[in-house]
Design a protein that fits this description.
binds 2-oxoglutaric acid; Jelly Rolls; about 300 residues; single chain; 7 helices; about 20% strand; alpha+beta
Length: about 300
């Protein structure tokens, strides 16, 4: 579904100004958007996930471990597809609270694509270089949104998501490096026009939400604090938007219509999108390996 059609549908949770701000700026931040009950359940589930990681000694397709991870002191980059590893995550991703937010920016019929739980454990956990998400999982239109939930909140020194305001209206840049490797990163020469005053990095307490448009250039800095910064990221699209490549992060619920009705026709946006590697063959370990020799978001 295209933005102009989405905006003709009645809003569920957001104001008209908030919806328009999302489409104008390519993101929308909301403080205290998730109920205390849900935050408590997500924290418990996250704690369990971290406990289980004590037995994990290497990346196993679900856990992506941070340097220095050990049983005594777990350090995690990410849990792929958290909805496959703890029922609370799927319940939450399919809940009214989440799907209403998604519906306000993708339209009343909402489809789930994938999710991840990023940890940034603290004391130097690396950030993410500037990148755009949709080239890793192209869809027939540009409706996909990532709904990010800070379950513990996020302060400026914890490496919040940082967005280049309005970049959703600009070009999609290659995410391959000069050697042809998929880098989940824009090339420096492509984005040298980005200045600090174009970047927003909203922060807030537990339950702060960031809705991130799939074309928006974004990244994040190192977590320099002692406290971990768990961030649950769930990707939804309009039900009439279809992924046309294999998914880098796959799970049992991919393609589930979590709100409204399945589509009878597909929605198309013919603006081109670079193709990623064939994830079904190449596998996907996350951006850390490829980004590790580069400074995050213009410097750690
Ligand atoms: O966790 C972060 O700070 C950034 C996450 C991100 O940009 C992504 O997963 O695409």
């Amino acid at each position: 579904m295209h933005p102009e059609d989405v905006l003709t549908c009645p809003a569920v949770r957001l104001s008209d100004t908030e919806r328009r701000s999302y489409f104008t700026n390519g993101y929308l931040a909301l403080g205290g958007a998730i109920s205390r009950n849900w935050i408590a359940r997500l924290r418990d589930a996250t704690r369990e996930i971290v406990e289980r990681s004590r037995d994990v000694v290497e990346d196993d397709g679900a856990y992506v471990l941070e340097e220095g991870h050990c049983a005594e002191s777990p350090r995690l980059h990410r849990l792929m597809s958290p909805e496959a590893h703890h029922p609370a995550f799927w319940e939450f991703i399919a809940s009214e609270e989440m799907t209403a937010l998604a519906a306000d920016v993708v339209g009343p019929d909402v489809k789930f694509h994938h999710a991840k739980l990023n940890f940034k454990s603290g004391r130097g956990s690396r950030g993410f270089r500037w990148h755009q998400d949709i080239p890793a999982w192209p869809h027939t239109d540009y409706s996909p949104v990532t709904v990010g939930v800070y379950t513990e909140g996020c302060s400026p020194d914890q490496g919040p998501l940082a967005m280049v305001r309005g970049s959703n209206h600009g070009a999609l840049y290659t995410q391959y490096d000069h050697h042809g490797n998929y880098a989940v990163s824009c090339r420096e020469e492509d984005i040298e026009w980005v200045r600090d005053d174009m970047v927003d990095a909203p922060t807030g307490g537990p339950g702060t939400v960031v809705l991130l448009h799939c074309r928006t250039i974004h990244g994040s800095r190192t977590n320099r604090s002692d406290a971990p910064r768990p961030l649950l990221l769930a990707v939804y699209s309009s039900a009439d938007s279809f992924a046309y490549t294999s998914a880098p992060i796959d799970g049992p619920y991919r393609g589930t219509v979590v709100r409204g009705q399945p589509a009878r026709y597909a929605s198309f946006d013919t603006r081109p999108c670079e193709l990623p590697p064939d994830w079904a063959r190449a596998g996907y370990a996350g951006p850390w390996e490829l980004q590790k020799n580069a400074a995050a978001t213009g410097g750690n």
